[in-house]
Amino acid sequence: MDIKTLIGLEVHAELATKSKMFCSCSTQFGAEPNTQCCPICTGMPGVLPVPNKKAIEYAVRAGLALNCTISEFSKMDRKNYYYPDLPKAYQISQYDLPLCVGGYIDIETDNGPKRINIRRVHIEEDAGKLLHEGWGDSSLVDYNRSGVPLIEIVTEPDMNSAAEAGAFLDKLKAILQYIEVSDCKMEEGSLRCDVNVNAVSSDGSRATAITEMKNLNSFKAAIKAMEYEEKRHHDAIVHETATVHETRRWDEANGETVPMRSKEEAHDYRYFPEPDLVPIVLSREYVEEIRKSLPELPDEKYRRFIAQYGLPEYDAMVLTSSKDLANYFEECAAIYKDAKAVSNWLMGDVLRVLNEKSLSPSDIPFPPAYLAQLLEYIDEGTISTTIAKKVFDEMFATGKAPGTIIEEQGLVQISDEDALLKVVKQVLEENEQSIADYKAGKKKAMGYLVGQAMKLTKGKANPQLLNKLLEEELNK
Fold first, then answer.
1. What is the pTM of this model?
2. What's the fold here for domain 417-474?
3. Where is the Asn/Gln amidotransferase domain (predicted)?
């Protein structure tokens, strides 16, 4: 039986404004608890909200980048519910008239390009943060985050696997970073997602109830949770097991999702228009001015990298997945003209170290000019590729220029023929068996002898010259 997974996402992105949605409190991350709040964002009686113009501009900017239609008339609504981190007992959000409607993101899948449709993008304010661990049976609340402006991006259930949802999240994050409306730092809570999953049989005769998973704060956790739920829903259809419409959470320690509450018991939010705020009315001229200010987006940059630099599609896709990585590549390629060599180093050694250290491209500790210099030293024969990798690791550890490291550590490549010939003769004198193996047709012996010579020169021998001299001596 063919079974189709249906996945829809609700992604919350904190907007990169300096102040909150309805007051002047700072949005800076990491301040002491409850030091960035005021009577407005803590919901004191009698206070009035004032909308943040920059937050509305950023939301429009995001909607345009996501191919949405921008509403000329929208409004804010009260979403009523009580939770300890929501001091007003209601959240100011948008209900029936969101700021942005429609839209889409195109992703790459194993079966080719696929369009994921976006239902809406709306503005709302964030809630505070509850701290549960380390306080026994009690919890503490930090209202610093309460009132921080958010956009919520709601997709259609167009994704049919965790891999497709992951591709959508990666693309969405890149777009939001390119247009500079959110830093998308999941570790700081500025990008979070809720996931809705269910499955249907190919003939439509069986379907599972939708499961919602809330506040997944890393792409890795989201993908694992979706993979687990996909299997659980498929098994329910195969074994005709009853399912319920519920909210679940991801248990990282046990690698499974666990029930939180039944959605049948969910509260009626009693939405109604926010009485303290006038509707948001935007002119076409205002929207078009914002559209004109949009930078080159990932898909456009991807196509340009292929056309301008002659890069393979895969290279262009990896490099444009991050604005910082794409900018780093272009700055380096403006100095060192072999764009493919630059791409190879960025996708190889640079991303390797970034992944090992859980860093982002913005954390590369040396400027693009240093990487260009390193490649030039290889071309000039000053250092070998092997030594270059050692220099690179030292550059990453210290931020020093490659020339400084080469000089300090005496890493200049040995290209003096007489000096290398002495090394070759020493290696041959010490490895008579390898000479016999080579003459007997065992070509691997050559590789061993090269390795011994490299060991003697601490990797500094010019490899081309070394191979030439070894062959000449062996064939005498």
1. 0.86
2. Arc Repressor Mutant, subunit A (1.10.10)
3. 327-474
**Vertex 456 angle, CA 453 and 459, to 5°:** 75
Residues 339, 344: Cα–Cα separation, whole Å = 9
CB 168 within 8 A of CB 186: no
113: β partners: 108
Q: What is the pLDDT of residue 266?
A: 53
CA 28 to chain centre: 21
Return the closest-CA partner of residue 374 out of 330, 341, 397: 341
Question: Contact, 49 vs 91, CB < 8 A?
Answer: no
177 near 207, Cβ under 8 Å?
Answer: no
Q: How far is CA 92 from the centre of its chain?
A: 29
pLDDT in tens, 7-55: 999 999 999 999 999 999 999 999 999 999 999 999 899 999 999 999 9
According to DSSP, residue 130 is labeled: E
Compute CA distances 13 → 10, 59, 118, 189, 228, whole Å: 10, 10, 15, 9, 25
Provide the 8-state DSSP code for 346: I
**pLDDT on residue 179:** 97
Contact criterion met (CB below 8 Å) for 313 and 306:
yes
For residue 101, what are the contacts with CB-CB under 8 A and spacing of at least 6? 68, 69, 71, 119, 120, 121
Element (H, E) at 194: strand 191-201
